[in-house]
Write a structure and sequence with these properties.
Largest sheet: none
Helix content: over 70%
Distance between the termini: 39 Å
Low-confidence stretches: none
CATH architecture: Orthogonal Bundle
Strand content: under 5%
Order of helices and strands: HHHHHHHHH
Amino acid sequence: ALRRDRRLDLVLSALAIAAMTIPEFVSATMLILVFSGWLGWLPGIILTSANAPISAFFPGIILPVAVLAMVMTAHILRTVRSSVIEVLDSDYVRMATLKGVPYRSMVLRHVLPNALLPAINVVALTVAWLLGGVVVIETVFNYPGLGRLMVSAISDRDLALVQAIALIVASVYVLVNLSADLMTLLANPRLRTAVEKRP
């Protein structure tokens, strides 16, 4: 965003849009074909049981993590880019430029702290989504995750398990969003001042 409409900005924006628009199961299938089918570097599915030690999952989770990281990074990249462009066009940044504030200092002290605030909420929602919203990825890679457990519990009409998983997911959503709000409050002096002035 600091060099918008340049070649690097256009390439990164195009890659981010592609990562956001391509469905996860398509990205997962493509990675399996390339890294498991053609190159043979990584396993295509996870054949380890849920009771196996954590180290046994490492080779198999590389591709699922790569797919999820692509989606998360694309959303964060687009959010930060839009926010940086908005902050760069703000009046106080223009005033700092007119006062002769060094560009590097202006970016580090004024632009980035304000531009990262929307990204905090995006990261919080993405982390909460990772807990139970990745059923497709878990199905493609045969990963025994919470999303597949929820679907299995619904299919088996296991009401107690469905309620337990729903309670866990809801609790994580609340805690993550509360943490994001607190981080935003601490990072934004204007919000802190507004809260302190309230009776």
